[in-house]
Amino acid sequence: MHSSEALIENNAAHKRVLLADDQPAMLAQIERVLGKTYDIVGSVGDGLCLLESAARLDPDVIVTDITMPGIDGFGAARSLKRAGCRSRLVFLTVHEDPDFAREAMSLGADAYVVKSRLASDLLTALHAALAGRKFVSPTVGQPTRPTRCSSKTDESE
Questions:
Q1: Per-residue pLDDT at 6
Q2: Is the pLDDT of residue 156 over 90?
Q3: Quick check: is 22 in a domain?
Q4: 144 belongs to a structural domain
Q5: 57, exposed or middle or buried, with CB in 10 Å at 0-12, 13-18, 19+?
Q6: Please, which pLDDT band fits residue 55 given cuts at 50, 70 and 90?
Q7: Overall number of domains in the chain
Q8: SS (H, E, C) the chain
Q9: Domain span at residue 76?
Q10: Which of 23, 69, 140, 141 has a 20 to 30 Å separation from 117 between CA atoms?
């Protein structure tokens, strides 16, 4: 490990992260990716619990999904910013549409990560956010690959 990587790892270990996603399996996966580097202080399953936990726990970083029951991630971000929340905000979502990324960034997000790139992008996104830099997964706005479909036709018809 290079000395700059060691410094990032050392500083990150003291940073407190709050997670919000309505899928327990996704929360577990995020914890596996971040848990060795960051202090996971809480995991919640909806926007209302995110707001309550953020106020109570005062995390350094919030990692949130967009699509959640009740208050979605965008609504939660608006409320957090209105309340003066200083936490860095990282969206982790299935939405690769650049309009979603633009909306997230306009709400004060520091990073926008696509769930299909969680393993490769999430740590980088948190490091960037904590350093005051913006991060967006490189696949956002990229055309999706067409899938190969084979169709069988009944030639006797």
A1: 45
A2: no
A3: yes
A4: no
A5: middle
A6: very high
A7: 1
A8: CCHHHHHHHHHHCCCEEEEECCCHHHHHHHHHHHCCCCEEEEEECCHHHHHHHHHHHCCCEEEECCCCCCCCHHHHHHHHHHCCCCCEEEEEECCCCHHHHHHHHHCCCCEEEEHHHHHHHHHHHHHHHHCCCCEECCCCCCCCCCCCCCCCCCCCC
A9: 3-136
A10: 69
Helices 118-130 and 24-34 meet at what angle, rounded to 10? 60
Give domain status of residue 27, yes or no.
Answer: yes
Burial per residue of 12-48, b for 16 or more beta-carbon CB atoms within 10 angstroms, e otherwise: beebbbbbbbbeeebbebbeebbeebbebbbbbbbbb
Residue 142 lies in a domain: no
pLDDT tens, 77-100? 999 999 999 999 999 999 999 999
Please report the pLDDT score of residue 142 as a whole number: 73
CATH number at residue 9: 3.40.50.2300
The reported pTM is 0.84
Closest among 104, 105, 132, 135 to 117, alpha carbons compared: 135
Query: Residue 157: pLDDT above 50?
Result: no
